[in-house]
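Need residues for this backbone.
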């Protein structure tokens, strides 16, 4: 495995050579060279690589299944499947929301996980906003997400 500094350097050099832009294809093309510091980040056994891609496609397809929830005048498109909180982190597993609804603990855990992901996205967006010197615009939203997340976690302990 490459050190993060080597990964950063390769990708930054690729971007520097391309007017600040980089694509996954550029990174892959660079990694094809056995002397590249990121060469070992890729699976070069085509059978294993194909299987990994097929599993990623399966994950994408599972996440794409949605249903509509109508609440008063608002229609929400909601995923049918979400990460199963009862499956260990290193294993694959999705649960449909309908069956998860039968357990209050599972519902809470799913919501906590969703809000943790939302918070991580806000952190990423916050870093970009800070770079553009616009970070104040996200602070209120981050606080609201934190409050919701905290309320679900407190309810779970009660």
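Answer:
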């Amino acid at each position: 495995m490459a050190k993060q500094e080597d990964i950063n350097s390769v990708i930054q050099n690729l971007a520097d050579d391309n007017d600040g832009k980089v694509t996954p294809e550029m990174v892959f093309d660079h990694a094809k060279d056995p002397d590249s510091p990121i060469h070992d980040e890729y699976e070069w056994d085509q059978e294993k690589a194909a299987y990994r891609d097929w599993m990623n496609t399966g994950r994408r397809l599972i996440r794409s299944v949605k249903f509509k929830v109508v609440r008063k005048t608002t229609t929400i498109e909601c995923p049918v499947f979400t990460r199963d909180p009862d499956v260990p982190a290193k294993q694959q597993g999705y649960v449909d929301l309908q069956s998860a609804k039968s357990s209050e603990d599972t519902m809470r855990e799913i919501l906590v996980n969703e809000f943790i992901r939302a918070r991580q996205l806000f952190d990423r967006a916050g870093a970009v906003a800070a770079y553009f010197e616009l970070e104040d615009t996200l602070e209120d939203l981050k606080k609201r997400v934190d409050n919701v997340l905290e309320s679900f976690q407190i309810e779970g302990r009660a």
